[in-house]
Amino acid sequence: MKIDDMDAFVAVIRCQSTNLAAEALQLTQPAITRRVQNFEEDLGATLLDRNTKPLKPTPMGLRVYEQCKAILREIDSLRELVANDGAPSGTLRLGVPQTLGDVVLLDALAQIREAYPQLRTQVSSGWGSSLIARMENGELDAAAALFPPGKIFPEGIASQSIVRMPLKVVAAKGSAGKRSYKLKDCYTRGWVLNPDGCGFRAGLQRALSEQGLSLSINLETFGTELQLGLVANGQGLGLVPEPLLQASRHRDALDVLNVSDFKPQVDLWLFHPRYLGNLQEPVELFGEVAGHRLLG
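The chain above was modelled as a monomer; its predicted structure follows.
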């Protein structure tokens, strides 16, 4: 039984396609097919249901897939034991949500490049939950994302809360009208938020639901600066981490609403597989720079 064959099988299940698995492993499609067939022959079991599109594992294939992921993680750990003494090189695969990209990435990538010139960085964006899933699938080496305090991460992922930030409800300058609000007083104005899947939006929706209130969305759009610009133009209320508000060019055109029954907080979490080998230092640098940028 060869590790390369196991790796090909895991890639096919993860990608649900031999073509995409071939791209991920930088092999040809026939090579991927051959490796998976060899793996099935070595085990004496059919692992893929080849009558389905996209490809799916058989019940036994799903059990083998979970076991293979654990084995490959241990193999990676062994490789890292002998790689720790070398200078970081190769590719560092980072993940960040779009909410943070504009604020932290330029400085973080510049400092990593200066400190580790042999290291190449790749950056992917997505919601925090999707970044965790990609890390579990071996597609990311580290990620920074916003989650509530006390977030529990899956087994095998190390995590660290770097910065805790209050979330602020904002409105166009001069539209506050009152010194203090409750959610029921302001929710009818509607909101300018990220599309469904955003943790901020989910937290707000939970708080409204607990009071029997509905979430009214005026505009859905990605990107904190765009959202704050739309709020400043009177398109609705916004919800933003305080450091991102302070860093925004729109901050002077916004009022912060004091919502007495809605005081959410969010943490910037740095998370990565437990064994990083010689990527540990650049990952720690990434976390330090991200935290410093948010703290201003």
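The longest strand covers residues 157-172.
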